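Milestone M4 deliverable, item 7.
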Amino acid sequence: MQRAAVRDVTYGGAGAIALEAGRYQAIVLPSIGGHLVALRDELAGLRFLREPLAHEGDDLSRYREDPIPYGVPLLFPPNRIADGRFTFGGHTYRFPINEPALRNHLHGFFAKDAWEVTAREVEGESARLVLRRRLRDGDEVYSLFPHPLTLELHHTLTPEGLRHELRVRNDGERPMPLLVGFHTALKIPFAPEGSATDCSVAMNLGPQWELSERKLPTGRQIPLGAMAQAIAQGGGDPFAHPVDALFDAAPGEGPNECSVLDRRTGMRFLYQTDRAYRAWMLWNGDGRSGFLCAEPMTCLVNAPNLALPAAVSGMQALAPGAQWSALSRLFAREEGA
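Output delivered:
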């Protein structure tokens, strides 16, 4: 039996940790948002995530400035908050306007921060890494989000793939808004010398939300376009046109799922998330850059400011002392297996 491994490595000049198990290798950057920046099938040469080194060479300087379009960065809060403001529990939150053209706060905090490594271990065929980011009074982010909290990212790699778990604990004495997601950037095609024309995407997309010129939900649902319909029906072209769209996750049994099939190789990559992520954001940049961001979120974009019931917007509170967690899985398999 091949034993798993957890190793210190260098990625683009940055200190990184590699998890290895079976055919898989995962690379995590504790010093840059705790990002899962790579997931690979080393035997077949498959690369499942959009990696910065494939686009920026050996220099991570641009990635450090904007790490969001690569790997699996945490969004807290996810996507956009109109005017960077909302009121919750009698407190008004004011976030920086970092999307000035649209007057929004975009993508939240923690994505560039250093995270603490709290556990790294190997047990048989399993490699495990745990990262932690605490927020306390005196922290720069605390002035924007005044809640003591603890975030943990648990990565467990086995020959069956990667388990990726987020845990959020409210360490304060009053309820805090829970607004989280991931900006997961899938590489398409993921096979060496592959072509995007060989690939199709399937997702459990539910109703689509109309977005305003500021890319904020209007509160109205609209019919799925042809591209989204094909993806929802199990085989759409991810680059039929540029997309930046918000959907509910369609109800059903089992996890939410985004999968990419490479028909030439017969391999399918699957990204599955717990149902705690009730919405999907889809973004493919200009539609020609070889990636699709399938972004699971616990709430709709701008949820705290929407005139919608919490059951619809996904807006929720985390009680003092309470912990929330949700699991994702990333793995590949031969089609039909």
